[in-house]
Amino acid sequence: MQDELTEIYEEAKRLFEEGKYDEAEPLLKTIIEQKPTYADVLNKLGFIENLKGNLREAARYFERAVTINPRYTEASLNLAITYNELGEFKKAEEVMAMAAQAANDKQGKLDPFVAGKLANEHFRIGNIYLDFGMYDEAITEYRKALDLSPDLPDVHTKLGVALRNKGEYEEAILHFNRAKEINPGYPAAWIQLGLTYYMKGLTGLAIEEWEKALMENPGLKEAKAYLRFIKKEETP
Fold first, then answer.
1. Less CB within 10 Å around the terminal CB: N or C of the chain?
2. Looking at the predicted structure, is the pLDDT value of residue 110 above 60?
3. 86-91 contacts: CB < 8 A, separation 24 or more?
4. Cα 215 from Cα 219, distance rounded (Å)
5. Given its phi and psi angles, is residue 87 left (phi above 0), alpha (psi -120 to 50 degrees) or beta?
6. Alpha-carbon distance 95 to 101, whole Å?
7. Are 118 and 82 contacting, i.e. CB atoms less than 8 angstroms apart?
8. CB of 65 within 8 A of CB of 42?
9. Distances in Å between the alpha carbon of 233 and those of 61, 202, 226, 229, 236?
């Protein structure tokens, strides 16, 4: 019986890895009916339910997987993502914290893959707060993301936007410049830095940033639009 279950699992795993989720799902359910403590299978079923948009059912699978194996980082992260999608941000934060703790090695260092995944989740939550104008909360999430992965230009840029929206221009400028250092080809950092200079009344510096942005990316519509706007302003 165990050999048969192993064969079913291997086939289900193959189908899952090939993205054939509809074919893998019934095999995974067959396994879990006979072996309900198989955390990896529960995680895969949760992933499939999440893809189908059945978030509550996905969360239940991930919760079972994490209960069985609290150190199963992938299931914890999937659960955090699902909680975020359900709007249960507090639960997501708690799960992410537990995942980070479980992923620490004996030297207290976080696995780079896990750190990246956790940083992405903090970034995602920060973007939601930013969209709703909750700048303090957004800033907190972006800082958490950078604590985990300091060299993410998109996070530095969004943190700069949130800071600027609070009127903290100088720190915002530092983060835009840091994003440029990390990735000189990241146009959003140039655009937002120019916009910040313009809002501070430093029109010359704003023009310089947008012109540099166009040199990096000649098709950048935002830079063209801002430069046209300034030229119209300066026309008597």
1. C
2. yes
3. 86/55, 86/56, 86/59, 89/125, 89/128
4. 9
5. left
6. 10
7. no
8. yes
9. 58, 14, 11, 6, 8
- Which residues does 233 contact at the CB level (< 8 Å), separation at least 6? none
For the domain made up of 2-168, the CATH class stated in words is mainly alpha
Phi then psi for residue 71, to 5 deg, are -95, 10
157-187 pLDDT per residue, tens: 999 999 999 999 999 999 999 999 999 888 8
- Chain centroid, CA 206 distance in Å: 29
Q: 2-14 pLDDT, tens per residue?
A: 668 788 888 988 8
DSSP 8-state code for residue 202: -
Tell me the C-alpha distance between 72 and 41, whole Å: 12
Tokens 């700048």 -> residue: 135
More confident call, 201 vs 178 = 178
208 sits in which H/E element: helix 203-216
Q: What percent of the chain has pLDDT over 90?
A: 36
Q: According to DSSP H, which parts of 69-168 are helical?
A: 73-86, 89-103, 112-131, 135-148, 153-165
Dihedral angle computed from the Cα positions of residues 83, 88, 94 and 98, in that order, rounded to the nearest 10 degrees: 0
